[in-house]
């Protein structure tokens, strides 16, 4: 074989979060661990994202215990990885260094090897402290540059009046300067490496990076970096598999994938399809595909148990073992066509071939709504839910068309968590204002005010001071003061024999990071312990 490709498996974190609302419990995780120990993955993403919140909120489990159990089972055979939002960690408040340091210290002690760090604004000052702390503690800092695209021009509904003339930017149909160029992403990646990142990831949470852009961007990133380059994308709008193929062909070092029943759709590409492509390209996948097959069989039953949360319950993929099953001639030819089209730079032919492969295996079709709107799928579904709550689903189209305006007014922020939700909610409020005949931005969310004020960091484009004054009452940028953060109380519980709510540093960190979820979780835990002691 020729070149080797490392795999970061996302199944136990991003895969289940993207497809099953992070509802896989520890019992299911335990079934997989003996196989994961022998699977030979470079890294396994098991923590971060929504896991700490969800396992407490919905499963009544301790996220620290999950990390320890997985670490003890894997025994260092693969790196364990997690995802954090830099200064915000898993929450939405910028934390002081003492909280960030305490969190990373305990995470690495409990077995975490790689911490992937991103900032929703790509403001690297928000991640600098995290990179430094992780390196100091002996972990591996993985700097994630958030991929996004410039909003389309000329799509938002026209609103006449003073505020539209003041803040509306260029008229519909006029071209705005492009911000998110290849150079933009390369500069961010290089800055991450200079900061101390030992891996750099091009992280495309929304699946918006198309194959042609990958073909342009990956070689430039590889040429500019001396550390390994990881590629992360999702399949929601229909680019994921094709873009992953091009990334492989352009020399990416690490590729993020999921295992069959937890892959594709709104998740990352399935490793089984990547394996077929790799075999045809003479690239060696660094994973034991026989062991992957054993995990796949366990996941089949686990997915059945998650039916209530399955986003794609009507798109159950056909069973497939790439080591044993022979592909029909026409589907096998689609893999060849995809490779040939990628080599020739014929993007539509490449996409057609990959979509035919996915359709044969009954994976979800591309989401054309989010593809056209160029927004994350979760952002769209949140907007729909918000409008239903307001009994205003009729303004959904206008709200979608207003997203580019809100993004530009707010400094052209990337659409990733949490900015995607903030921009989406404000677009809904703006559409509602217009429907009611009010001036733009008569209704503002607290999160949007905080974003425009500067509390989330520096936006890719400076916000117009006049717009900041309109939204916040002050034209001056005001960053969040981390020193104003107040540590939560750790009360004693008389009903539990006077025990403290948090009995150790890890539990207290949960209270700091996720107070509204951790407090009821820990209260229930203390009550159960007290009852057990009485008996």
From TrEMBL:
One Gene Ontology cellular component: cytoplasm
Annotated SUPFAM superfamilies: Aldolase, post-HMGL domain-like
Domain Pyruvate carboxyltransferase: 5-293
Signal sequence region: none
Entries under InterPro entries matching the protein: Aldolase_TIM, Carboxylase_cons_dom, PCB-like, PYR_CT
Any one Gene Ontology BP term: gluconeogenesis
Pfam families for this protein: HMGL-like, PYC_OADA
One function term, GO molecular function aspect: pyruvate carboxylase activity
Protein name: Carboxylase
Organism (species): Candidatus Enterocola intestinipullorum
């Amino acid at each position: 074989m020729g070149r080797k490709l490392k795999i970061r498996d996302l199944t136990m974190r991003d895969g289940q979060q993207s497809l099953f609302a992070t509802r896989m419990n520890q019992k299911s995780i335990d079934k997989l661990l003996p196989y994961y120990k022998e699977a030979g993955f470079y890294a396994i993403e098991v923590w971060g994202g929504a896991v700490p919140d969800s396992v407490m909120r919905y499963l009544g489990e301790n996220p620290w215990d999950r990390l320890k159990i997985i670490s003890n089972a894997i025994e260092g055979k693969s790196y364990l990885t997690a995802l954090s939002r830099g200064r915000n960690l898993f929450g939405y408040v910028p934390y002081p260094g003492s909280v960030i340091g305490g969190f990373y210290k305990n995470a690495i002690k409990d077995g975490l090897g790689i911490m992937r760090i991103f900032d929703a604004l790509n403001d690297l000052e928000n991640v600098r402290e995290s990179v430094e702390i992780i390196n100091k503690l002996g972990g591996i800092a993985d700097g994630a540059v958030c991929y996004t695209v410039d909003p389309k021009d000329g799509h938002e509904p026209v609103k006449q009046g003073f505020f539209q003339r003041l803040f509306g930017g260029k008229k519909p149909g006029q071209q705005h300067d492009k911000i998110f160029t290849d150079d933009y992403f390369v500069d961010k990646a290089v800055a991450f490496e200079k900061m101390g990142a030992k891996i750099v990831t091009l992280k495309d949470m929304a699946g918006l990076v198309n194959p042609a852009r990958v073909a342009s961007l990956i070689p430039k990133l590889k040429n500019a970096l001396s550390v390994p380059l990881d590629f992360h994308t999702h399949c929601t709008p229909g680019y994921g598999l094709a873009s992953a193929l091009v990334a492989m062909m352009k020399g990416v070092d690490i590729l993020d994938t999921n295992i069959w029943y937890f892959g594709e759709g709104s998740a990352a590409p399935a490793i089984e399809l990547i394996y077929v492509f790799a075999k045809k390209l003479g690239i060696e996948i660094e994973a034991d595909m026989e062991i992957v097959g054993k995990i796949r069989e366990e996941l089949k039953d686990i997915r059945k148990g998650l039916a209530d949360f399955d986003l794609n319950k009507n798109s159950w993929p056909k069973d497939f073992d790439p080591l044993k099953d022979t592909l029909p001639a026409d589907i096998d030819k689609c893999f060849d066509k995809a490779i040939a089209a990628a080599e020739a730079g014929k993007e539509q032919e490449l996409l057609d071939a990959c979509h035919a492969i996915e359709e044969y295996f009954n994976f979800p079709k591309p989401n054309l709504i989010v593809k056209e709107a160029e927004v994350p799928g979760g952002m769209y579904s949140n907007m729909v839910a918000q409008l239903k709550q307001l009994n205003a689903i009729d303004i959904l189209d206008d709200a979608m068309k207003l997203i580019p305006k809100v993004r530009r007014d707010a400094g052209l922020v990337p659409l990733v968590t949490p900015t995607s939700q903030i921009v989406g909610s404000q677009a809904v409020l703006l559409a509602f204002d217009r429907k009611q005949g009010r001036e733009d931005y008569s209704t503002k969310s607290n999160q949007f005010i905080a974003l425009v004020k500067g509390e989330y960091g520096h936006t890719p484009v400076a916000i117009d001071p006049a717009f900041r004054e309109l939204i916040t009452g002050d034209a001056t940028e005001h960053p969040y003061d981390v020193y104003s953060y107040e540590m939560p109380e750790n009360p004693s519980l008389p009903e539990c024999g006077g025990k403290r709510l948090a009995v150790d540093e890890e539990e207290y960190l949960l209270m700091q990071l996720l107070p509204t979820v951790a407090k009821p979780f820990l209260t229930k835990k203390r009550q159960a312990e007290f009852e057990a002691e009485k008996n």
